[in-house]
Design goal:
Elements (H helix, E strand, L loop, with lengths): L3 E3 L4 H27 L4 H18 L10 E3 L5 E2 L19 E2 L4 E7 L12 H18 L5 E9 L6 E13 L2 E10 L2 E11 L2 H6 L3 H5 L3
Parallel strand pairs: 1-2
Antiparallel strand pairs: 2-3, 4-5, 5-7, 6-9, 7-8, 8-9
Ligand 3IX binds next to helix 3, strand 6, strand 9 and helix 4.
């Protein structure tokens, strides 16, 4: 299965690369939010567009043939920089940066105007996106990763744009299936709850990977 590979980069160099990746990601994230809410005159919008197109042309001077994939260092550091939820180099990603404790993973993050569904509220599909990732991350953290087989969400109240928290934990495992649960909450309380079944796919079972040491935690 392509997309998961080892790319050895010395620790110091990796830290430097990470700063650059985060820098450009954050700048484009700010650009996306500004594009949604700007109220400047059209001439300024058109001037900004010209500059953005010039920046895009610089970035496209050289590019990888595929998507970014997931890249591992042998020290366990993992680069998931293209991921739609946690990818620091992906401006579509908020990004949500997970922390892990004994029995759960969590993250505190903020969603801006580019994630709006109903006015002032986060789009339900974006909620699903984040819950999918946090539950999947809990499965990885428990040493039982998998592809999302089934994800059920109960939207209990609207999730206001702004600061929020997500967390997830493992309910149980049954063979190749990991049953995870999680939620997203704001100052208003729990907004959405999820249950998911994460399944170690056949190709990964056949590789017989050492799940804990190979995958590690980001
Ligand atoms: C990723 C895992 C592999 C590990 C690789 C190593 C490193 C990973 C490192 C980092 C990962 C980083 C982050 C992860 C964080 C977030 C994750 C985001 C997740 C996604 O964004 S992911 C995209 C959306 N996702 C898909 O794109 C899935 C498409 N689909 C498939 O890839 C297959 O469909 C699959 C694999 C689901 C099953 O295929 P399969 O051939 O392995 O299944 P098989 O028939 O052997 O069934 C085995 C047992 O699962 C039951 N079962 C089967 N399908 C089920 C279902 N849908 N729901 C509930 N139960 C189901 C059967 O009933 C049987 O149960 P029983 O054993 O009890 O009979």
């Amino acid at each position: 299965m392509s997309g998961y590979f080892t790319e050895e980069i010395p620790a110091e160099e990796l830290t430097r690369q990470m700063e650059v990746a985060r820098g450009v990601g954050d700048s484009v994230r700010a650009l996306v939010a500004a594009t949604v809410v700007t109220d400047v005159d059209e001439d300024d919008v058109i001037e900004a567009q010209r500059l953005i197109d010039a920046a895009t042309a610089i970035l496209e001077r050289r590019r990888i043939d595929s998507s970014f994939g997931i890249r591992f260092n042998s020290d366990g550091r993992q680069r998931n920089w293209g991921n739609a939820v946690e990818g620091i180099r992906n401006p579509v990603a908020p990004p949500v940066e997970f922390e892990a404790g004994d029995d759960r993973v969590w993250a505190e993050f903020s969603l801006g105007p580019q994630y709006e569904g109903p006015p002032g509220l986060v789009h339900g599909g974006v909620i699903a996106l984040i819950l999918d990732q946090v539950l999947g991350h809990a499965a990885v953290h428990a040493g039982a990763p998998g592809m999302t087989g089934t994800l059920s969400i109960r939207y209990r109240q609207g999730t206001k744009l702004g600061s929020m928290r997500t967390e997830a934990w493992i309910d149980r495992t049954e063979g190749v299936k990991t049953f995870a649960k999680g939620q997203i909450s704001t100052a208003d309380g729990i907004c959405a709850e999820a249950e998911g079944i994460f399944i170690m796919p056949r190709w990964a079972r056949e590789l017989d990977i050492d799940r804990r040491s190979r995958i590690g935690d980001a």
